[in-house]
Amino acid sequence: xxxxxxxxxxxxxxxxxxxxxxxxxxxxxxxxxxxxxxxxxxxxxxxxxxxxxxxxxxxxxxxxxxxxxxxxxxxxxxxxxxxxxxxxxxxxxxxxxxxxxxxxxx
Length: 106
Hints:
The chain is mainly α. About 75% of the residues lie in helices and about 0% in strands.
């Protein structure tokens, strides 16, 4: 993950894009890319959406949009100094407390 994040930072730096990679701009770009992923599934039935990867063209589009979402998320995290894996682990810990397993005693 860290090496991909560094590649993205270097990619942007080589093109002098750093001034545009503000937290706000990256959050907006992330939202746009997530919306493009949603668009693929917009009018599919639940059954069709479960089979979307069976179509090579749709699978390619899904993969591209997932890559775009992840790229912008990693760039966002790099700019703000957030470790995405640590943040996710901490969030899962909090959710396990907030939403205990059914039948578990507090």
